[in-house]
Design goal:
The chain is mostly helical. It is built from 5 helices and no strands.
């Protein structure tokens, strides 16, 4: 495989990693928004218990359980993202790997590891210990 192809697949992998990070942030947004909504409901109850019935009712009716985007709670944003952009992005990346690299992932990083590691040095092994163990022949 050419260096240019490895570099292109590496950039595609990098782009997918950014999308994965964005997806994680979206899940974080979902969890934090849900946690805030539950706390808001508790605050409304505490306001009611403290004698502030009108304010508690206002908060419950205006804010508790409301959509974060027109017609959508955060779980719906995640579902649309996962089923649309995210799924299509992953499929495009996998299609390129299957076509150009027999499905192998992280070729760019594998080449970088091989260039940067110190052969024969502990913690610089080419493959995980469990695959070769102390009884196996050296893989350097």
């Amino acid at each position: 495989m050419s260096d240019e192809t490895v570099k292109a697949l590496g950039k595609l992998s990098e782009a997918l990693e950014v999308v994965e990070h964005a997806r994680g942030l979206l899940y974080g947004f979902h969890r934090l928004t849900g946690k805030a909504d539950l706390a808001l409901g508790e605050a409304a109850t505490l306001l009611q218990d403290a004698g502030h019935e009108d304010l508690a009712t206002d908060i419950r009716q205006q804010m508790v359980g409301r959509n974060v985007i027109h017609g959508r709670w955060t779980f719906q944003l995640i579902e649309e993202y996962d089923d649309g952009y995210y799924a299509d992005f992953k499929a495009a990346e996998q299609r390129a790997r299957n076509l150009l690299a027999d499905g192998k992932r992280h070729l760019f990083e594998a080449e970088m590891k091989e260039e940067r590691r110190t052969h024969g040095k502990t913690h610089h092994e080419a493959v995980p210990w469990k695959e070769h163990g102390p009884w196996a022949a050296s893989t350097d």
